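In this supplementary section we document a worked example of the pipeline. Step one takes a protein sequence of length 178 as its only input; no multiple sequence alignment statistics are reported here. Step two produces a three-dimensional model, which step three serialises into structure tokens for compact storage. The input and output of this example are shown verbatim.
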Amino acid sequence: MESYAALLRGIMPSNPNMRNDKLRAVFEGLGFENVASVLASGNIVFRTADDPADLEDRIQQALATELGIPGGTIIRSHRELRDLIDRDPFEGRTHQPSTYLTVTFFKDTMREADTTAFDTDPLTRVIGYDPAARAFLTVIDNSVGKTPDFMARLEKTYGKNITTRTWLTIQRVVNKMT
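The serialised model returned by step three reads:
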């Protein structure tokens, strides 16, 4: 039996169908064990012996059917996330209110290694792409009171089969999986 994290795209806790209790119920209904939520932004951890290749589609179909959630589902195993943390791609930087360390997970692999979409944005520093985790790593400067148009630029460049989490959230997810 393996531990997994489902990183759900587009979850808004103010929507009654997107609350943690309803999300967990869908996962439990699929027969997964040790289902738990991490924060209120679409992070569900669970254990299963099912084939990981089918998990994303099964979960997304159940979320759409039962709760009307059309967004994307991206799955990562405990090992994949733990290995990412152990690699320390942010080289000891600390996530804080003025500096967000972000991880954008791709459903498959990054379409292209081109990160030039962020070259003109002085508030976004590209750390790189981690192929093992299928994740794009960036540091967002929030110290100037202006939020960069980061999410829109990500979607325009790479499409919607992605979801972004802070480094702190990834650490919390991994801690909940153990």
